[in-house]
């Protein structure tokens, strides 16, 4: 089971890098815009998201209800990690919790709603 998961994850990552490099780059730029991450961190964030999606796809074979729950939990955990990193980065430079951080909150809410609708529909 684990061997097939890691092989599937490897194939997905290689597919993202080789066949759709431009699309992968656009997704990385999108992560940079939403979360204010560096390009290096964004690459790892996208890889983590792809791996978590492939992990959740394995659950579809067994029980579909848990697939949606696990995927939502992983996505919320991912958002929380990025939010925590952003707040630590923001406060380390002496920033105040003003308009810029509020716009980041709005982006997170919009992103969460869009992904939630995608998960419910598909």
UniProtKB/TrEMBL annotation:
Keywords in alphabetical order: Membrane, Transmembrane, Transmembrane helix
Domain of life according to the entry: Eukaryota
Entry's transmembrane regions: 6-24, 31-51, 57-90, 102-121
Protein name per its UniProtKB record: Uncharacterized protein
Organism per entry: Gigaspora rosea
